[in-house]
Amino acid sequence: MTELFKQLEPATQGTRKAISTLLDAARWNDDGLLPAIAQQHDSGEVLMMAWMNRATLEETLATGRVCYWSRSRGKPWRKGESSGQVQRLMAAHVDCDGDTLLLSVDQQGPACHTGRRSCFYVALGEEMAEIVSAPLMDPAELYGQR
Amino acid sequence: MTELFKQLEPATQGTRKAISTLLDAARWNDDGLLPAIAQQHDSGEVLMMAWMNRATLEETLATGRVCYWSRSRGKPWRKGESSGQVQRLMAAHVDCDGDTLLLSVDQQGPACHTGRRSCFYVALGEEMAEIVSAPLMDPAELYGQR
């Protein structure tokens, strides 16, 4: 917990800080990243979780189009750039200890690379796990031939 | 992406796997943990994100009471054990590549250690960040004298 986030704990609604000060105090991990949860703004459905560095978060806040950091490709990932399934940013929040982002988004079509609306389609029980949704569309349509 | 999660990508609704097989294939991080997002089951509000190892996830699935792994204390953290603000598990899901959990919970009172319902109370804009909710209760009431 950084000093700034500690100071903000008892803060009343409407208290403001410069975004640069806040992002200086955020607890980026050893790779300079924060996990970012994407939630559909109207339905409340949690769609996916990905990662952002400071540059991609700042780009997202400036443009209103969600841009993650792709850990596998090691570069910015403007959601929808290959699939067409863009995420528009409605609101962004950081949590109490400055180490997790929550994005309220408007997601076009499937958020998941499998063609499903949400990435969270495997339900876990004490004995069994079960697939709870089928793809809305063929991933080959989303990405072309792979 | 592990082979099992790759196989499950095109799976139809109702496909089942033994939970032990699925958890063997999950992508636990270098500390043996997965991030776990907690969402209030009826309102859809995202309350917090914390971490689970395999033992605390299995305990949670078995007991229906959410138990995280506390990274700071290095031990299981049965949510509410010091604050009284228990989380009951309604459903648990893992995502497409097996590296993030989504918990549907019934949270008693505030989820956040600051006394707020949700940990995500700092809104981020291009220039400014703003506190968007006040504590529901005094953290001193939640935890006693600290």
Task: Give structural notes.
Chains A, B: It is found in: Cytoplasm. The structure is a homodimer of 146-residue chains. In chain A, 19% of the residues lie in helices and 32% in strands. With 146 residues, chain A is an alpha+beta fold. The first copy, chain A, has one domain: Phosphoribosyl-AMP cyclohydrolase (Ubiquitin-like (UB roll), Roll), CATH 3.10.20.810. In chain A, the strands form 3 sheets. Chain A has a 4-stranded mixed sheet with strand order 3-2-7-6, covered by helices on one side. A two-stranded antiparallel ribbon of chain A has the order 4-5. In chain A, strand 8 and strand 9 form a beta hairpin. The longest helix of chain A is centred in the middle third of the chain and has 10 residues. The N and C termini of chain A lie far apart (43 Å). The mean pLDDT of chain A is 95. Chains A and B meet through strand 1, strand 2, strand 3, helix 3 and strand 6 of A and strand 1, strand 2, strand 3, helix 3 and strand 6 of B.
The CATH superfamily of chain A is identified as: Phosphoribosyl-AMP cyclohydrolase
Q: What number of structural domains do the residues of chain A give? A: 1
Under the CATH scheme, the architecture of chain A is: Roll
Percentage of residues in helical conformation of chain A: 10-25%
The class by helix and strand makeup of chain A works out as: alpha+beta
Provide the succession of SSEs of chain A.
HEHEEHEEEEEEH
Residues in β-strands, percent of chain A: 25-35%
Count of alpha and pi helical runs of chain A:
4
Look at the structure and give the mean pLDDT of chain A.
95
Assembly classification: homodimer
Largest sheet report of chain A: 4 strands, mixed
- Overall morphology of chain A: globular
**Would you report the number of β strands of chain A?**
9
CATH topology of chain A: Ubiquitin-like (UB roll)
